[in-house]
Design brief:
The complex is a heterodimer. Chain A is of the alpha+beta class. Chain A is built from seven helices and three strands; from the N terminus they run αααααααβββ. In chain A, helix 2 (about 20-30) packs across helix 3. Chain A is elongated, with a radius of gyration of 40 Å. The termini of chain A are far apart. Classes of the chains: A alpha+beta, B mainly alpha.
């Protein structure tokens, strides 16, 4: 069995692929070992079947549009400038532009909404007295608190 | 044939689109077959094959003609196919390439050879199995599919396989051994062939295939 571990991977080697002494040792082993001989027979019997099957599938497929599609892809890949870059790197461009556009949209929205209503109420303190400023569309309006006891 | 390639490459380098189209038409089916063997899916293979030609066109200026154009093209197609498969299933555990005693005799060796006979054209079972090869190939792990396809479709030698896949020659041989064993197991199941007796119980669970022949009872026999 130890010999099989050594020789089994050599089965299926083409002429000249194994050093001469290895090829000779393999041939001697095959004479002695029934299991390896059977495996070698299967390898020989199925040799070429994979290539035949895959090429048969390729030949059965309609390649009428293949070359046109390749040339179109090449055309897109070669388009110069920013638009060419965008065409070649559609996924990267999308990944980059989506957050940028989202941020821009948010800024525009806040600006528009901010123009309609008071943005915030700001409370200023001065010498312990509270003064309230309201930002309105017409500008800031300062509300002065009445002095207590007056 | 190769002189024609170089002439077309030379024209394509000079900007002749029709010359490049000629190269595409010449190699499209073989590149597709190569990609299909590795990625399994027909649409993905179509896309990978097209991308291979696009990459070749992009780097055409760097092609010096030291190797055959087809070798360069197949190399790019192989790498794109492997990348495509690995992107789809990064998490799958890789199998070791070592050959151990359990791998050697799983039972049934030799019966394929007997059933298939010597004349490939006259054998009905061979024709039947040819239709199942793609399905059987799809059951193999990516690295086993890849090496078998490169060996058979592109006809690469051990040295060329080692160089293409970035592995040692010894690993090439053991990986091919595993790939062939697995294909044989799959084909025996499709053919409904069962060993009379297994020389060794490997204890290896074989995954049942979806569409094995049932008329012979091959799937359910003890």
């Amino acid at each position: 069995m130890k010999d099989c571990i050594r020789f089994a991977p050599m089965i299926g080697a083409r002429e000249g692929e194994l050093p001469r002494d290895e090829a000779k040792a393999l041939a001697t082993h095959l004479v002695e070992c029934e299991a390896c001989r059977a495996f070698a027979a299967d390898v020989a019997a199925t040799d070429g079947m994979v290539a035949q099957a895959l090429l048969a599938r390729a030949n059965a497929r309609d390649f009428g549009s293949f070359a046109d599609e390749v040339m179109a892809r090449i055309g897109r890949a070669e388009r110069p400038g920013v638009f060419g870059w965008l065409a070649r790197h559609r996924a990267a461009a999308t990944a980059t532009l989506v957050p940028v556009l989202a941020a821009l949209a948010l800024i525009v929205y806040v600006r528009i909404e901010g123009g309609r209503e008071p943005i915030a109420m700001l409370e200023l303190s001065s010498e312990g007295e509270a003064t309230t400023v309201i930002q309105t569309a017409d500008g800031p309006v300062v509300l002065l608190e009445e002095e207590s006891g007056s | 044939m190769e002189a024609d390639d170089l002439s077309l490459v030379s024209k394509a380098k000079a900007g002749d689109a029709e010359a490049f189209r000629g190269l595409v038409v010449r190699y499209q089916r073989k590149v597709y077959a190569l990609a299909l063997g590795i990625v399994k899916d027909t649409d993905l293979a179509w896309d990978v094959a097209q991308e291979a030609f696009v990459r070749v066109h992009t780097h055409l200026g760097a092609f010096e003609g030291k190797a055959a154009f087809s070798t360069w093209l197949y190399r790019i197609a192989t790498h794109l196919s492997i990348d495509a498969v690995r992107r789809e299933r990064r998490s799958q555990k890789d199998e070791l390439d070592d050959v151990n005693e359990a791998n050697l005799a799983e039972g049934g060796e030799g019966i394929l050879a007997t059933a298939l006979g010597n004349d490939p054209r006259e054998n009905a079972l061979r024709r039947e199995l040819a239709a199942k090869i793609h399905e059987a190939l799809a059951t193999l792990p990516e690295k086993h599919r890849t090496i078998l396809v490169l060996r058979e479709v592109e006809g690469l030698s051990y040295e060329e396989l080692a160089e293409r896949l970035g592995i040692h020659k010894g690993t090439v041989m053991s990986r091919l051994f595993h790939a062939r064993k697995k294909m044989q197991v799959a084909l025996r199941r499709y053919a409904g062939l069962k060993p009379a007796e297994a020389p060794l119980d490997s204890g290896t669970a074989e995954r049942p295939l979806r569409s094995g022949r049932t008329d012979s009872g091959g799937e359910s026999e003890p």
